[in-house]
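Continuing the batch. This is chain 6 of the set; chains 1 through 5 are on the previous pages. Same settings as before, nothing changed between runs. Recording input and output for traceability.
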Amino acid sequence: MSTTNTIPGPAKPADDAVGTPRESSLIPSRERARAFATRIDERSHEDPGVRAALRRGVGKDVDAVPFMHRYVASWLTEEQTRSRDVQRAFYTVAALIAAQRRDQYAAAKAETSRKSGSKDQPTGEEAAAAEAAPDAPGRPADRPEDKEPGAAKRIPPRSLGHAFAEGVLKGGQAGGLRETSAETRLNLLSRQSVDGLHRHLPGAVRQLRDSDVEIDWARLLIDLCQWRRHSGAVKRTWLQDYHRALQKDGERRAREHDDDQDDATDTAADTDGTDGTAPEA
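Output for chain 6:
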């Protein structure tokens, strides 16, 4: 009697892991991510119904947010709909944008600037995102272009580490973050799995936005899409950006202190009628 050995089939990959041979086609480009964030920001600012629908998705899984599909689904390519991680990133960022205070939307700030007659121009990030928006006048609403926007100005990305550093650098200002609190929160995020990151992110973002710290939504979207396969590189960047920003500010303050000391010395010398040098023996 012969015994037939059953050959096991291939192991099932992790749930919709991003790390496939076509990974580059799953991760949105910087321009497309900016266009998505800009449009969600505009719709959330302009339409209370859209804002309510999107913000209800904070902290929820993609399968539990049917009210968001109308505003997010059309931004996903057919390949991206096969990746749960990428879908979840788009829905999470949309919900977090909508959950801001109404006066914190970029669209709200631009409107306030226009009404006040301010000469302030939009930041390069806002201008580039506006140029890249897929549903400018004459285009169907909530329908991204078939091709990537190409003329958007390149703006250096700003990671979540930069955002936490900015919160700390607000210092004694109302709402500023304490350094210990910011570093603890950033380290907590860096230790998370995909599920853990999405669970802890709303609290972290709320902490930053309550301190009026701007968040680079496009960069956050891309980082979330890559977290399962490249969390090591992403978290390293976050922590490096955080500490480098604080260090650079410390060096700037030290230079300013030295300049103030030099000015004080020169002033004292002028008052004494001397050139500030020691008399010869």
